[in-house]
């Protein structure tokens, strides 16, 4: 059992040595493996975040109806199911196409300051740690482009074609009396 407890210490020493090539310890060959592992971790984390943070709920057609059993090839292609309210009608963007049009650096800047119309929870994306936003980019970008752009948003006061979710709010106090 004691031999097991030595293992993490050995790994730590190797990792530190790998960070300091100038120390002349000859461990240059140790660095590619952690980098590859980090890439795989980011992809897996991105897939996980997209699945549990709700992105598929709106951006992937039929995701809720299928209880999440939608092939990844169909994920995040945007939706023709509109969200209609006082802001007009918005359609979940095709993120597969959007991510291809952005570099990772552009996405990190853009997502940190994301401002959209409802019903997109842009605040949730802004609040994500940079590494989580990076993970989402890596994963969605790795899926490649797919699908067509979502319909353009409609201005307030226009009734959209079906299908759409409609948000009906109570009249403003004092209005219409
Ligand atoms: C409740 C539905 C909903 C959820 C959940 C949701 N989105 Fe959206 N998203 C939308 C809608 C609708 C738009 C279009 C907003 C507009 O037209 O202003 C949008 C737009 C966006 C945009 C802007 C695209 C562009 O450049 O025009 C990004 C980026 C985005 N969503 C990413 C995400 C990510 C990442 C998640 C998961 C963390 C997510 N969305 C979850 C509905 C949603």
Automatic annotation (TrEMBL):
SUPFAM superfamilies associated with the record: Cytochrome c (SSF46626)
InterPro entries in alphabetical order: Cyt_c-like_dom_sf (IPR036909)
Domain of life: Bacteria
Signal peptide bounds: 1-23
UniProt keywords, alphabetically: Signal
Protein name as it appears in the record: Cytochrome C
Record organism: Pseudoxanthomonas putridarboris
């Amino acid at each position: 059992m004691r031999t097991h407890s030595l293992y993490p210490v050995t790994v730590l020493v190797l990792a530190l040595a790998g960070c300091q090539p100038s120390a002349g310890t000859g461990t240059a060959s140790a660095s590619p493996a952690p980098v590859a592992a980090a890439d795989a971790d980011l992809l897996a984390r991105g897939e996980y975040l997209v699945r549990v943070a709700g992105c598929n709920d709106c951006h992937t057609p039929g995701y809720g109806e299928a209880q999440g059993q939608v092939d990844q090839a169909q994920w995040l292609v945007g939706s023709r199911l509109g969200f209609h309210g006082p802001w007009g009608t918005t359609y979940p963007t095709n993120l597969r196409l959007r991510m291809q049009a952005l570099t990772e650096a552009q996405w990190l800047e853009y997502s940190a300051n994301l401002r959209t119309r409802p019903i997109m929870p842009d605040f949730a994306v802004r609040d994500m740690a940079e590494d989580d936003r990076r993970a989402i980019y890596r994963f969605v970008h790795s899926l490649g482009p797919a699908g067509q752009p979502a319909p353009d948003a409609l201005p307030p006061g226009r009734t959209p074609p079906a299908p759409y979710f409609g948000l009906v709010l109570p009249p403003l106090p004092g209005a219409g009396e």
